[in-house]
Design a protein that fits this description.
mainly beta, Cathepsin D, subunit A, domain 1, five-stranded mixed sheet
Length: 120
């Protein structure tokens, strides 16, 4: 069963992440978490333990890929965080001036624009 998350892209984040509260709202429709020993360093320097790691198929625009996300509380900052790992995996190109991302596919590129309220 498909569902959508409003995602934030952060090409400086070294992980992909799902907010713990969001995961709990949809966990019956997702694969179970596997244990994770990761400690995540926040921008303020604090360390937050991962609640676990989720792996599964992700569709972003026209791209489908297997992805892994650490689950931890974002304190309401975001629901899903797409970091450098997924951007690298998809060979995404970030155009800062236009604030858009292009993801290559077999037909060329899919352009994803920054748009408040758009979900993946």
């Amino acid at each position: 069963m498909a569902f959508q998350f409003l995602a934030m892209v952060d090409n400086g984040a070294m992980i992909n992440a799902i907010d713990t509260a969001m995961y709990h709202r949809v966990q019956e429709r997702m694969n179970s978490l596997r244990p994770s020993r990761r400690m995540l360093r926040m921008a303020d320097g604090s360390l937050v333990p991962s609640s676990g790691a989720w792996s599964g198929m992700l569709q972003w625009g026209a791209s489908n890929t297997q992805a892994t996300f650490e689950v931890f509380p974002s304190q309401g900052s975001w629901k899903m965080l797409i970091g450098k790992l997924l951007l690298d995996q998809l060979r995404a190109i970030h155009y800062y001036v236009k604030d858009s991302i292009q993801i290559p596919n077999k037909y060329g590129y899919v352009k994803i624009e920054n748009c408040a309220g758009r979900s993946i």
